[in-house]
Specification:
By secondary structure, the chain is mainly beta. It has 2 domains: about 35 residues; about 80 residues, OB fold (Dihydrolipoamide Acetyltransferase, E2P) (Beta Barrel). It is built from 2 helices and 8 strands. The strands form 2 sheets. Strands 4-5-6-8-7 form a 5-stranded mixed β-barrel. A 3-stranded antiparallel beta sheet has the order 2-1-3, with no helix packed on it. The longest helix is centred in the C-terminal third of the chain and has 4 residues. About 20% of the residues are buried. It binds zinc ion.
Length: about 140
């Protein structure tokens, strides 16, 4: 039984047994209180974009491995999860203004976390009635 791949990506974090601070990546000791008793947990797969920017030039290589077709700009940012932890992640988008404050869903966790706008994946008519699709030229 393999259920840890492809179907639903997960982010593993940890929670402090003393002060309940959640950390990502999972840590064996708490950065807030210094406690050494932590429990591994699955983090939420939805969050809110806290900040974002566009990476317009290739990062230092290594560790960055440019794709075979060459580098193209991509969005990166921090996604705040309900657990109170901010996760650095790749974002599916081309404009920080369109990303910041939006709800996003985890779409990949390997090799790095990546999120896509929640509205792009599901049609939730009750909450997204005001969404318009504008083409910026
Ligand atoms: Zn702690």
């Amino acid at each position: 039984m393999t259920e840890n791949q492809t179907l639903s990506p997960r982010l593993r974090g940890s929670r402090c047994e003393h002060c309940e601070t959640v950390a990502f990546p999972a840590s064996v000791s708490c950065q807030r209180c210094g406690g050494s008793e932590t429990t591994g947990i699955d983090l939420s797969t939805t969050g809110t974009v806290w900040t974002a920017t566009i990476q317009r030039f290739p990062p230092k290589s290594p560790p960055y491995v440019p794709p075979a077709e060459g580098f193209s700009p991509y969005a990166v940012g921090y996604v705040e999860l309900p657990e109170g932890v901010k996760v650095e992640a790749l974002l599916d988008g081309t404009s920080p203004v369109d990303l910041i404050g939006r709800e996003v869903v985890l779409v990949g966790s390997d090799p790095v976390p990546s999120f896509a706008l929640a509205g792009a994946l599901t049609t939730n008519a009750s909450t997204t009635t005001a969404v318009t699709t504008e083409e910026e030229v």
